[in-house]
Amino acid sequence: MTNKKIRFLMMLSIAILLFFSTISTENIVYADEFDETSSTDSENLEEIKEIQKNLQEADSDNNLDSSEIKNAPVNLEKTGDTKEIQQDNDDLSNKTKDTIQPVQDSDTVQPQALYEIDGLIMNATSNLSQADPTDIFFFSPTSDRGLLTRLSSDNANYEVELYIVDWDSMIMYNTGIIKGTDQWLLVPNLPAGDYALEVRSTGEVGDNYNLRMNASIPPNYTNIIEFTSSLSHVVAEYADSSVYANGTHVLNWSSSNSNLSWKREFYFSDNGGYNRRTHEVYNVQVKDILPNVYSYNSNYTSSQQVLFLALDIDTGFMYNESQYQSGTNPIYHNSFVDTLGKKTPRRLDVHDFNYGEHILVFDISTGKTIDFFSGLNFYYAAGIEPLPTYSPR
């Protein structure tokens, strides 16, 4: 190395030392020196706790006994009896599937014999009369599904039967699966194919009925955890400990459920500085799925179909807030202390539940966690954002 280069490096080092010697470190705050006090509003924590208690104690529509599932048919079989579908003495050969009036969720249909369900979920209200003593609803799952159906009416003579449909021959085959009013028609394993539900009466007619159906969940369910009164949403459990809401995978009771991890990060930079705040929930352990399916709204997010998942101990949690501002007296603040005054990252312990439940908000439509309703959420605990609102579906 030449003498000129040596002299240059020496002069550069001296200049750097002189520069930093002019900077005061009195205002620099490091993580080790940060005053570890929480910014939690105790009134907000109590309000969060009260809301969570109401969620846990909410009435559920689930009146389905698990023994009914165990007694449901394992396989569908044609009984050998057949039926041609007729309407006003006009057989089905004069119609096509495309011309049958579609029925969607929450539709009120007019008296008519033939309907085609639009999709695999239906909530239809109609009536039977002397002129229209039978209504038939067609549906066609393209993959194996689980079926739940329920007929309601003030007329105890009404019943519903499941048929297998052969569109080539325009014939319906009996399956022998028949249920009366306010009974469950359950088929845990419904193969892909064409089917029909026939509503009829064994006696008098003239009364209204409501027919609800959901065939959107995967097959071979072993338990129904939750459902809405309209059957628009069904939460089912399976032998491998997995849980699905309609066709969306929610969790597995025996795994860490990485799909439920949640992270919210705020970052803002301006004029040589920045502010950052991060929440993260990981290694998710779920102890309970709270009753009902809800619509959910907050300042941060919203969804028309969510489940509330109550977390268990050993769930991972991290909170970090940091701030930096450059200048003659630069400021640096960094803390991993959460709203309860505990250092993170850490696992939830039994003491955390003295402040209420810690709930992940799971969006059924996207299959992702969208919010963390907890006293550990700085935005709710400190009153930065109003508490979310919700209503049962």
UniProtKB/TrEMBL annotation:
Which keywords does this Swiss-Prot/TrEMBL entry list?
Signal
Question: Which spans does this entry mark as compositional bias, Basic and acidic residues?
Answer: 78-98
Q: What segment(s) does the record annotate as region Disordered?
A: 55-99
Specify residue ranges for compositional bias: Polar residues: 55-66
Q: Which residues form the signal peptide?
A: 1-31
Q: What is this protein called?
A: Uncharacterized protein
Organism field: Oceanobacillus aidingensis
